[in-house]
C-alpha cells in the first residue's frame, strides 16, 4: 500500500455547526474540499494509529464517493481496521452504537440529517469520538482552525472497496470489514424493549402501525425490526428504500413533510400508531389515531413511564432537555425527584452528562430523543419505546397523552421557523433583539409581565466548559416563554427559530389549537424581533 502526500490549499468556510459540516454537494465537490476536512480531523487527534474507525451515512447523493475518500485517507493515517456499513448505509445512532460496541476510536457519519439530498442539494460530515458522542466543541474548534492552515493530506493508493457486498479484506496491515448495517443495532433494541410482548400484540392485530422511512436510512432497519422481527404485516413500513435524493422529498419527520403518513393517521382507516424518522435516523415523529404528539410532550411522557420499559425498570438517574424544548419534562423530573439539566441545542451537549451517569433520558424539541444506550438521538428507539408503552398500558396514544396532561398539566408549545433568511439581516435582527434584553424585565405587555430576559450561556457541569450565546430567552411571570435562536443546521442563509410556550392545567384547553392558545404570545414574539416587518414575510415557513 503506497502512501502519497498530496499538496492542497485551505478553504475558509469549513466551520462545523451543531451537527458537523454541512454544505451544498457542489461545495464538497471542490478540489480537495472533503479531503482537507478529513485530514484536518486526523491532524487534531493523536490516538487513532492502529485503531478501529466506523464509516457510514444516510445514503444521500455523494455518500458512496465520500466513503472511498475517507477509506484511503484513514488508511494513509494509520488506521488498522475500518468498519463500513453495507452499501455505505449506517444510521447515526447505529454508528454511535458500533463505536461503543467495538471500542473504535471514532467514526465518520456522512449525512445532512433532515436536509434534502441530490446533486444540487445538501451533504454533510461529522466525526464522533470514542464514547460514541459527536465531537465536542474544543475538538470541532481545533478542526476548523486546522482547516484554515492545512496544505497537504495523506492518501493511500489502492482500488476502491466494494461496499455493496458484505465481506472482509486485508490490504497490508489494514483490515476493511463491510458489515450488515442492521444486525448490531437490532440486537441492542432487543436488550431494551419487550420484543415478545410487541410481537404478540402486533401478531394478534391489537396494535397496528405504519412507519414512514421517507426513503432514508431507517428503511432497512424498520423493515427488519418491525416486519421481520415483530411480525408486522408487509407494507407496514412505507418509503422503505433509501434513495440518494430521498425520492425527491424532504426527509424531515414532521406533519408537513411526512404528508402521506399524516393523511393516513388523520383518516378513518388510521392504524393505532404511526411514526417516521429522518435522513440519518436520529429523529422521530410520533402519531396516534387522529393524534399528534409534540416532541417535548413525547420526551416528558417517556420519562414519566420509563419504568414500564424493561431497559429502564430500575428508574432514571436524571433527565436533560435542550433550552428551547418545553418545560414539560421539568415537571416530570420534579415529580420523580430527579435532576433535570438544561443544555444548549446540539446533541453533543448531552454526551458528558450521559458519560458521567447524571442522566438516563434526554431530548430536544426538534424531534430528537434518546437515552444512555447510545450517544446520539435515536429515532427508531423512540418509536419502539412508544410501541412498548402502548402495548404495556393497553391504551391509545391519545389516551396516554391525555392521562399525562391530567397528571402534570399541558405545556402548550409551538415553533416558528423563518428559513433561508439573508445572513446579514438575520444577524442584525438578532443583535437588535439582544440589545433590548436589559430593558424588558418588569414590563407589562398586554398582561404578560416579563420576569427576566437574557441570552443563554451554559457551563458544563461535568468538565466546566462554557458555551456562550446559545439563544435568547424572554420569560414571563406566569411561566410562559419566548425563545429565539439562529439555527446552525441549514446550508443556505440563516434560519431563525422562535419557540413559544405557555403552561395550563385548565382541562378545557387541553385540546385547543396551539396557534390559537398562543396567539397573544405569538404577537409579542413579532413585536420583540419584527422578523415579518423586516423581511416582508407574512408567515413562518414552517410551524410545528
List keywords for this structure.
about 550 residues; alpha/beta; 7-stranded mixed beta sheet; 18 helices; 27 strands
Task: Describe what you observe in this structure.
The chain is of the alpha/beta class. It has 18 helices and 27 strands. Strands 2-6-5-3-4-9-8 form a 7-stranded mixed beta sheet, with helices on both faces. A hairpin with a 6-residue loop joins strand 22 and strand 23. It starts with a strand and ends with a strand. Helix 2 packs across helix 3 (63-76) and helix 2 packs across helix 5 (137-147). The protein is globular and about 70 Å long. The mean pLDDT is 95.
Which residues form runs of ≥5 with pLDDT under 50?
none
Number of helices: 18
> What's the gyration radius in Å?
23 Å
Distance between the termini: 52 Å
Question: How many extended strands?
Answer: 27
What about the largest sheet? 7 strands, mixed
Q: Would you tell me the structural class of the helices and strands?
A: alpha/beta
Strand order of the largest sheet: 2-6-5-3-4-9-8
Percent strand equals 25-35%
Tell me, briefly, the overall form.
globular
- Mean of the pLDDT scores? 95
Relative helix content: 25-40%
